[in-house]
Amino acid sequence: MKRAIFLLHVVLIFFLAACWDQNLLKDTQLVYTAGYDQTEEGDIQATTLAPPVEEGGVENEVTVTGHSMLDTMYEMDLRIAEYANFSKLQTVLIGESLAADSVYPFLDELYRNPDSNLHARLALVALPAVDLLSSEIETQKNKSEYFKGILESSELTSVIPYMSLQEACTIIFSPERDLYLPYITYDEKTKRAKIAGLALFHQKKFTEEYLNTEESVIFNILNNDIEEVARITRRVHEDRNPEVENWITIEVKDAKSNLKVNRQLSKLRAEVTLEIVVLEYGQNKITNKKEEELTNILSDLLAEDIRRVLKKLQSSKSDALGLGSQVASFNAERWDEATWSETYQQLDQEVDVDIKLISTGIIE
Amino acid sequence: MQIKNEVTGWQLFYLVVQTQVGIGVLSMQKDISIVSRNDAWISLAIGGILIQLLLLVFLWLLLRAGEVDYFILLEKAFGQIIGKLLAACYLAYFIYILLVSNLSFIKVISEWIYMDTPRWILMLLFLIPAVYCASGKVVHIARFSMLVSIILPVLVMLLIPVYSTPNYTHFFPIGSEGAGQILKGLEATLLAYIGFESFLYFSKYVRSNREKELKKAAFSTLFVTVFYLFLLISTQVYFHIEELVIVPYAVLYILKSLSFVIVDRIDLIFLSLWIVIVLTSFVNFLFIASNESKNLFNLKSHKRPIIFIVFAVFVTSLFIKEKQEIIGVQTALPAVAIIFTVILPLGTLCFYLLFRKEKEI
Predict the structure, then answer these.
(1) For B172, which of A151, A187, A312, B347 is 20 to 30 Å away at the CA?
(2) Do A187 and A111 share a structural domain?
(3) Is the pTM of the predicted complex or chain greater than 0.90?
């Protein structure tokens, strides 16, 4: 009996290797960056970047057209020596043409496939994704790293939120919230891509509107979604000379924003409390009196900014701050999915900004 | 060394817990949410409380009945012929449960990681260890169940990062689906809790100090309820309901989307722990089924029936491979389960007690 069990174990070892599902690195091409566009016929054009096999080599760039997402992968496999593998995907760039109607059907396969990477960052591109991916980027050899890095560094400064495939799909599935994606443009002159701000969606469709970088920082504050560094530079004086003395740069250390729609669904109240540190101020001396003056000026300026951002969101029907989900959860009898975007546009604003200057850093 | 063929109260507790916690860890969130939407957690809580009460009723009746073995009790209550017939039905029910659990296991594994590995290999890798575990004495599987229970807190810890950005609005408005949907959700809830009835069959191995020891074990469902509630609430704060109903294995999706500094794809780590949990559930049922057939056919050992049962499960599973067929096999489960876990045991126990009283008078 003992011998039988021993032999059984020996036999079983051979079953453990999982040979059928082995996925050897030498047989796969790890795609790091993928860009998608929609052709005029409604097909998908996919452009993928895979890092070079040897250090200092050339990046592997492929552009194919297919009828579905998996079809594009199939077409890719016909053109590359290995199998395309999306498990290390870092960045997904979406061309505007893809978001013209509804962006989800294209993301579905990436989202559900157990192999794909749900941490991949999503961004909307102002030009066709294929153009951006194939255009030259000055001083950059590795484009995949560049596109990942450009998004990552802007997240650190709270210009854009971290928008992964998982987060985007969670928002897409909530009928009470609208999607927003980092927006990337390309500058022909300097040959560089640039984070232009946040693209606003109405449901799953791009509204053609976007918040610029200044506004998107405000948006992130309103959305309670800021990282360690959130810098705001504003002109607080009119009459100083040289010009640089008119400006102040602050860093938001802590921000709490409380957005509320009243029960009658007529008014939107935004209460924002900021704890700030002054980083740069031309006059270099901040007395108590000056402190009060500055916080007052900044409160007014930021309140104005918040109003502008809210107005922009409302006029483009983009409920990116998820006010709808608040109404649906806590004011359910008045919630109506069909009329919400109309109601949302009609909301009056009431903005209240409270600024606490907690430190002036290296400025006396 | 002579190993005693009996278990303590705590061992019974873990036996019942491990029989209950199985495939449901992954599938119940979706199954319940489809029906009771954002009130799924209420359904789960109500289901847990009801089943806990039912277990207490079982306990009360069992202690009064005096007879320790549930299947002998069947015979005593209904007479030998009907009793044997019912025991045979039970056997069929157990084999059915084993079949469903095997099929569901293979489905998850082949959909999530082993897409290309043939199903029969996966089944063998699952069934052979199960045969080995179940062929021991009850003490062995009880100790194994206790040992494996260490995994449950690990699963809880893996899910804690979800609470870094929770979205509690997904629960509101509470009760919006109405009592009807919440109660309808109990059906799916029952599936997650199946295995609680193993209390009836395993309780015969508690020999010394029965009343006190059985009482400890009777609260196993309370533990499972709390564990399940944590799982369900964790998925609900993470996913919007519309997403939860299309995502097949919510916990796997969550774990896949979490990222730590050194480890990624925690879902795969989770899955390898989960396999062990599913295995204990399978082993415990296999053990009950084989022991029952030992009594039913007057065999000397329960080892031979194990081979037969597993062979039957293996061969049947080979023929059921289309998605619709698998779903078809699973759909009968709630109705069958209610009969065998609620109605029959309650009926038998009450009938036995009444019948005996009359005789005594």
Answers:
(1) A312
(2) yes
(3) no
Q: Are A59 and A168 part of one and the same domain?
A: yes
Q: Give start and end residues of each alpha helix (H) in chain B.
A: 9-20, 24-36, 40-65, 70-78, 80-112, 119-134, 138-148, 151-159, 178-193, 198-202, 210-218, 220-238, 241-244, 250-257, 266-296, 303-319, 323-331, 333-338, 344-360
- How many whole angstroms separate alpha carbon A145 and alpha carbon A156? 16
Please tell me whether residues A241 and A301 are part of one structural domain: yes
Run of H or E including A168: helix A165-173
| Interface residue A203 vs chain B (CB under 8 A) | no
pLDDT tens for chain A, residues 1 to 364: 788 888 888 887 766 655 777 778 888 888 999 999 999 888 999 999 888 877 777 788 889 999 999 999 899 989 888 888 888 899 999 998 888 888 888 888 888 888 888 889 999 999 998 998 888 877 777 888 889 999 999 999 899 999 999 889 888 888 888 999 999 999 888 888 999 999 999 888 898 889 999 999 999 999 988 887 888 998 888 888 888 888 889 899 888 999 988 888 888 999 999 999 888 887 777 788 888 888 899 999 999 999 999 999 999 988 899 888 888 888 888 888 888 888 888 889 999 999 988 888 777 6
Residue ranges of domains in chain B, CATH in brackets: 9-360 (1.20.1740.10)
Residue A2 located in a structural domain: no
Nearest CA in chain B to A225: B165
Q: How many domains does chain A have?
A: 2
Residue A58: inside a domain, yes or no? Answer: yes
Strand pairing report for A33-38 and A91-95: parallel
ipTM reported for the complex, 2 dp: 0.80
Among A21, A175, A332, the residue with its CB nearest the CB of B173 is A332
Residue of B nearest to A171 (CA): B240
Does any domain span residue A11?
A: no
